[in-house]
Every structure is written in C-alpha cells, then in structure tokens.
Amino acid sequence: MFGIPFITNYTKNEIGISSQNHSIVQDSRGIIYLANDYGILEFDGSNWTIIQNATNGSNVKSLAIDNNDRLYAGAQGDFGYLDYHDEYKLIFKSLIDKIPEKYRNFGDVWQTHVTSQGIVFHSWDATYIYSNDTIQVIDFKELSKESFLVRDTVYIQAHNGLYKLDDGNLSKVPFLDYFSDKEVSFMLPHGNSDFLIGTKFNGLFIANKFSINPFSIKGIIPLKNFQLNKGLLLKNGNFILTTIQNGILFIDSNGKLLNFLHKYNGLQSNAASSLFSDKSGNLWLGSNGVDFIETSSPFSVIHINKDEEHATYASLRFNNKLYVATHHGLYYSEWSELTKSLDKSATFKRQEGLPDIIWNLQIIDDELIISTEIGFYQLLNNKTKLIAKTEGAWLLQKFSNHKNLYLGGTYTGLVLLKKINNNWFFHSNLKGFNESTRVMEQDNLGNIWTSHGYKGTFKLKINNKLDSIEKISFYDIQKGFPSSIYTGVYKINNELVFTSQYGFYKYDDIADSMIIHPFYGSKVGTSEHVRYLKQNKQKTWYIYGDETGYIEKYADGSYSVASSHFNKLAEYYIPGFENFWFLPNSDGIIGTKQDLIYYNASIKNDYNKAFNSLLRRVECPINNSIIYDDRYEFLCDTVINQNPKIEYIYNNIIFRFSASFYENIKNLTFSYYLEGFDKNWSEWGAENHKEYTNLPEGEYTFRLKAKNIYNIESNETTFTLTILPPWYRETWAYIIYALLFIGFIILIFKLRGIQLQKEKTVFIEEQLKKRELQEAKHSEEKLKNELLTKSTELASLASNVIYKNERISEIKQKLSELTPIAADKVSKKLTKVLAFIENELEDDNWENFEYRFNQAHNNFIKRFKATYPELTPKDLKFCAYLRMNLSTKEIAQLLNMTIRGVENAKYRIRKRVELDSNDNLTNFVISF
User: Is the C or the N end of the chain the one with fewer CB within 10 Å?
Assistant: First the structure.
C-alpha cells in the first residue's frame, strides 16, 4: 500500500463535545453514533449532535445496534436503549429496574454486544443478558475485565483465564489459559476457526485448540513495545490494530504491514479509544476527536515533505527511485523505502545541483532528462549535469528521421540537441518561431505541431539545414477550432489528437483544417475544455472539464468509459500542469497542487453503491414545533406522526436533511420537490434545508434525493403532510355555509314569493286601474262623444235659432215696412203680429237649451252661477254662448242685441267676475 489514505479530521472543537469516544456504530440508514463522555453522539454527514444521555447522567461507554435499529448503550452504573416517552421526546430507557436489586451496583459498562442469545452488557463487576424483556445476571466470583464478541460468541477475560458465554452459562476455555496472566486487548476471528489475540504488553498471537503462536508483523519493531489497544477485522480480510501511543497499523492476514498511520501523517492522536468500519468499508477512529479514513478508496496521498507544500509538475520511477518535479526542486525517494517505510511522509530527499523550478521529467535512451527553468539537465550516476542552457526548458523529444538529434521545447521556441557517445551537445536554435513550446508532437511527415494555450496551434516545417523554421501554418478558430485558446496536441495510439476548449479534434489534411474527432467526441463529449490526455497501455486517460476518466479498449475491439470514479481528483490539479505517471501494473501517480496522489488500480470500489438521503427533521418556525424527527421513526419501536395534519396558521414549514455518504461531504448536493406545490425538482445545491412559507391547504409530499461526488444519486426519501384548511374552510364550515346558503335560497324564494305576490297584487291593481282607466277613458270618450253630440246639437239648435231669428227678423222687417201703409184695421193686425214676432225672438226656448248645455258642459251654468251669484240670467246665457265659442255676431243674433250691446254685456260680465283687463273673457269662461 502506497501513501496515506485520505483522512478527514473532525476536531473536538468542531464537534463541540468531549474528545473521548469509546464506541462507534452505524444504523441501517448509514448514520454514525458514538459513545461519548457527554452522551450518545450522532453524526449524519451534516451535524454532530448529542441526542441522549444515560438516565443517571453518567458517561456513555459502549454502544450496539440490532437489526431493527434499536440502539443500546452502556454507561456508568446504567444501561438500556433509546426509545420515546411522548411524541418527540427521545429518552434513554434504563433497564436497571429489571435487575435484581443486589446486582444493581456496578461500574462502567465497557462493552455492549448484540448476539443471538440476547443483548450482552458487560461491566467488570458482572455481565447482564437482556432477552425477552428480562435480564439474566452472570455474577463473576473473580474480577472480570474485557469482553469480546467473536463469531456470535462472547468471551470474557478474568484474572485466571478466558471464559465463553454460552446459553447464559459461563465456561472456561482451557486452551486459552495461556492468557490468564496477560492483559488481552482484543480477540478477532482469523480464518475459519483461529483467533487473532492482541495483548497490551505481549504482542499478537494466533490461537486455536491445538496451538498458540506469536504473530509477528514483518518489518517493524516487536509489537510488545506498541501496547496494542483495539483490533478490527475488515471485510477484505485485513486487520487494523490500534496502539496506546504509536498510532494504528494496517496488516494483512499473513502479518504483512500495509500501512501505518499516526499523529505525524494524518491522525489527530496516536491513541485510539475506538474504531469502526462502516458500510462503505471506510474507517472511523475515535481519538482526540474523530478521524474518518477512506480505506475503501483507491487513492492515497504521498507526502513529499510534511512541513511544506510542494506543487508537483511531473513524477516517474527511475533506477528504483521515485522522482518528483516541484516548484522547490527535484525530490526523490528510494522505491523500496517508499513501499516499506512506516512513515510515508519522511522518505524524500532533494536532488542537489538543480534550480528550484523543475517542469518536466522524461526517460530518454535510459537516461533521466530534467527540464528546468534554466535549461535541460541529465541525471548521471545520481548526479545532475546541465546539457543545454536555454530560456527555460519544457520538454525534449527524439527528432523523427534524424539520428542523434533531439527537439527541445523552451520558453522562446525550439532548440536542437545532439547526442554523440552518450554526450550531449547544443546543435542550434531554430529561428523563425519564438512562441513558448510546452506541448509538442511530430506527425508522420516530419511536421512539428505545437500548441500555445492562449494563441492557438502551429504546424512547423524545419528547413533542410536544420537551423530555422521554413514554414509556419497557424490553426485557430479560422481553421476549424471552436476558439483560439486552450488548444493542445497529444499523440495517442500513434495518432495526433488535438484538444480544445470544447472537445477533441483531428486534422483533416485535405481541407487543411481541424474537424471534431469522431471517436473521442462521441465517447467523452464536445462541450468542455480538454485539459490533458495520456495513454497507458489500453487506456487513454483524459481530463475533460472537471472530469477525470479513461477510455479502455478491449481485445474484441469494444470500449468502455470510466469517469465519475475520479471526481475526487478535480480539486487537486494544478491548472495547465496536470500530469500522470503509470507503473507497469497500471497503478498511477498523479501530480497535484500539494504532494502526490497514488492511484491503486487493484482496489475496485463500488462507486454505484446506493446510499440514503435523510430527511432529519420537519419543523414549524411559527411556534417552534417539531412536526417530524426521523430519530423517532428509526430508533424507537413505534412509528409516530405519519402524514401529520397541520393547522393552517402554522403553514410555514422547514425541511432539514442530510445524506449518509461521508467521502467529500462538501461535495454532497441535494435536490427536492414538494409535490403539490413545486412544479419541478429543484436545482442541485449544497444547502441542507428548505423552508416553505404560506403553504395553501392540501396534501403535500416532500421528495428528497442527494448526489455524491461520484454523481451517484441516493435513494429517494419521501414525507407526506397535510395542511388543514383555515376554520372558515373546514368541512363543518362548508356544511354551515351550505345550510346558510340553502336558508338564504329559501329566504330568497320566500321573499321572492312575497315580492311576486306583491307584484301580482300590484299587477292586478294596475290592471284594474288600467281597466278603470280604460273604462274612464272610454267613458270620457263617450262623454266627449256625447258632449260633442250635445255640443253639435246645441250648435245646431243655436244655428236653428239664429236662422229662425234671422227669418223672423226679415219677416218682422218686411211687416214693419207694411204697417205704415196698411189700413188701420190691417195695421192693428200687423202690430199684433209684430208683437208676437218680437215675443218669439225673445223666447229662444232657454230652459231646454240650459238643460242640454249643463249636461254637455258639466253643469257649467250652475257652477258659474254658484261662483258668481251676482250674474243675471242674461249674463249666464251670454257666458254660455261664450263657452260655446260663438262669435260676437252670433251672440248678438241669439240675444237679439246689437254688436255694441254684446260688447257692453262682455264688459259688464268682466266687472262682475273681477277679470283683469289683460285676460281674455272667452278663454276664462272656456277654461272654467
């Protein structure tokens, strides 16, 4: 094993609790629990939280969790399990009351084991077996010490040997009497039936029924000097051993030391009080805080110098040494020391005789060529020699088709070097091209291709004299590239592959232009900056944007692409100076901003392994209430508060979440979707909570998923809740509304009925009135007609009278003319006739006329006489004729008066009715 695994240190200040963690377990969701001096400590990837203390408030010393996620804990003088008392009140349910009273006084419960026989709580005073809600006490007559769980059997060490707990009975294990005078630190299964037993002062042993043999670790000082403390068997069959003051050891089943971690290469302390291998195969270490060690990862760190940061530009193995080009010189380590040393960070030395900045390392003709800030060096017999002083040196290549000539790229163009009898000579500066040449390849026609990161790509043809550039062709956006920056050129499988800001390209010699590379473009992509290409056997490694991966070609011609496995590397590269170097076994060494990363190709991590998104808590900030807490669902017997109903006034909801994936926690992202409110899933983001405000009433399902650094999505978590409607939108309210509405409709109908009845009455009355009006109108018309008839009759009568009077007057006139000439006797007769005629003229049958006139004119004469009693009958007769609108002449004839007499009569009447001189008498009489 090379290097140091990636280690995340959680300091006691960061955690905010005691640094002592005595036991570590993990539940089925992946949440980590630790037995801390302050209580049971929980870590869900986002928060460290003390979730409960022992009933008596003492330190928690041990933890165990069963297949139902019930968490058991042993404390000082107490043990039990987590449960809830009331809704959202987690409690430590002590089992003390189930112990016979005489056995209730005991000290620390140092181990808690889940076995098929029950839950075993072990203290140095006694051992307690909890099963079927009862407790069996195993009372030692002799003082016991540690207990160990091996293959579902609990072993207990007493001062006179090791005992086995079987079906509630203790029996001594005779073949382990050898350890009766030794302090056993741990017992682990080794193979199918053997035991690996670690002691505090006597080292390691392999024990079975037939023999007990010391078990040595190759390559280190005797283990008895290490004071072994804890041991752990990993899933891959390897072991981890902790010591009191010397760190932790990784060994295989044969005793080969695989790694050695301590305070000076990553741990917070050399003493580990607890260790645990989680579901992903990574290691949790309780030391001076908590250390998370990525033992399942194929990546580890090779420190060049633990006291300094070293940006590394190149690395390779040469003459059994690992050489590293850095910004602080060239460093090397003996390969054998690097693989065997217990301290991987203390084996590098700086190579003397070189400047500070080393850009590149190459093996050319079995020599190590070193490109530096002042020129090219060779390493010969472990000593360096400047072979060409230039304006900075980037790389050196054999010049195709020119024996003994080598083409060098520098800060200011190209140079040629010549090698004769293993001696290097400067040949020439190639004139005509002065661009920095850090990337360079040669095609089959002898052309030199070089790319400048900020200008473009050049194709160069050297003249026959080999002293200058004969032709320069420039390729940028005008020649097919998507842009002029970030172009590069690499030779992969003897083909030139050009890289750009947006994918892979190849050269089309017919069009003299770049075209998208059909193979790499389809396998990797065309939208990101290709930063690096490297071929190693059948794999072509690439860095594409922030994605590192490889394309592997198989014997049958098929290909596969692996990429997300290497996402961890993205943050470590030096932009523009990415570099890989591969060992024959395909392991790789990768240069980074600080030190090296070792890639172990034999470690096949399950990157697609499912993990859980965790909805930890649902809260209402309005009244600071807890709607849901997942501890009560997973740590307690009874699932509570499923699909909670929330009053409308508390419709502001906060969802808090995390994920049980612990590698590169800062790269965890979350996406959520509140079904019933949101339209789509949210964008991926690092925020581990979401608040919704003013949610309308209705049922909602909160859906959550997480994505880790390897772009693997977690299992989806869902939670359903209901926001109740406000009281005025409750069902009973709607019933009341319905009743009120029905009542209102009934009232409306009743009022409408009353209104209709009124309208009917009014209508009938109106119809009656209309009928009466019509009848009155008809009567009026009838009266008018009668009046018209009577008026006509009166007018006719008046006309007849006038006509008669005119005739009589004419006769009278003629008779009057005869009287003077007639005889006396005749004259007397004529006088009598004239008197008769005069009398007839005065008697116009007034009574008959008056009667008819009053009928036609609404008793006008009576009314007028009653109003103006001083009027004479002749005045009334005169007014009646005025009412009939007769002319002055007609009145004069009717009344046997002169015209002047009529005018005088009008005047007299005006005076008697007191009519103003401006008013018309006729109009006055007609309108009366």
Answer: C
What b/e readout covers 54-83, taking b as 16+ CB neighbours within 10 angstroms?
bbeebbbbbbbbeeeebbbbbbbbbbbbbb
Q: Is 607 in contact with 564 (CB distance < 8 Å)? A: yes
Reading the block at residue 535, the tokens are 């071929």
Which amino acid is present at 606? Answer: D
pLDDT given at position 845: 58
Mean pLDDT, the chain, integer: 88
Q: What is the dihedral of CA 506, 508, 513, 515, to 10 degrees?
A: -40
- DSSP one-letter string for 369-433: EEEESSEEEEEETTEEEEEEE-S-EEEEEEPTT-TTEEEEEETTEEEEEEEETTEEEEEEEEBT-
Report the distance separating Cα 450 and Cα 320, nearest Å: 33
Classified as helix, coil or strand, 494 is: coil
CA dist 60 and 867 (Å) reads 128
Quote the strand ranges of 511-587, DSSP E: 513-516, 530-536, 539-544, 547-553, 559-562, 580-582
Residue type, position 608, single letter: N
Map residue 249 onto helix, strand or coil: strand
Instruction: Locate 682 and state its tokens.
Output: 């949210």
Residues 372/359, Cβ–Cβ less than 8 Å: yes
Q: Is the pLDDT confidence value at 533 over 60?
A: yes
Burial class (CB in 10 A: 0-12, 13-18, 19+), 144: buried
H or E element in which residue 96 lies: none
Structure confidence at residue 810 (pLDDT): 67
Residue 782 phi/psi, 5-degree rounding, is: -65, -45
Terminal-residue alpha carbon distance, the chain:
138
Element holding 53 (H helix, E strand): none
Other residues' Cβ atoms within 10 Å of the Cβ of residue 103: 15
CA 222-223-226 angle, 5° bins: 115
Q: Which residues, other chains included, contact 232 with Cβ-Cβ below 8 Å and sequence gap of 6+?
A: 188, 239, 240, 241, 275, 276, 277, 283
344 band by pLDDT with thresholds 50, 70 and 90: very low
Dig out the tokens for 593 from the structure: 């901003």
Confidence of residue 221 (pLDDT cuts 50, 70, 90): low
- Relative to beta strand 21-26, strand 312-318 is unpaired
Q: How far is CA 369 from CA 372, 402, 490, 790, in A?
A: 10, 19, 20, 151
Burial level of 748, CB count in 10 A (0-12/13-18/19+)?
exposed
Q: Taking Cα atoms as reference points, which of 137, 139, 150 lies closest to residue 176?
A: 150
- CB neighbours of residue 829 within 10 Å: 14
Do 413 and 435 meet the contact criterion of CB atoms below 8 Å apart? yes
List the structure tokens of 515.
């075209």
Q: pLDDT-derived band of residue 802, with 50, 70 and 90 as boundaries?
A: low
Assess contact for 338 and 349: CB atoms under 8 A. no
Q: What is the DSSP string of 714-755?
A: PBPEEEEEEEPPPGGGSHHHHHHHHHHHHHHHHHHHHHHHHH
Angle, in degrees to the nearest 10, between helices 731-818 and 888-895: 60
Phi and psi, residue 327, nearest 5°: -80, -5
Q: Which amino acid is at 286?
A: G
The answer for residues whose C-beta is within 8 angstroms of residue 32's C-beta and 6 or more apart is 24, 25, 26, 42, 43, 44, 276, 278, 284, 662
Report the SS3 class of residue 26: strand
CA proximity to 670, closest of 44, 42, 50? 44
- For residue 191, count other CB atoms closer than 10 A to its CB: 11
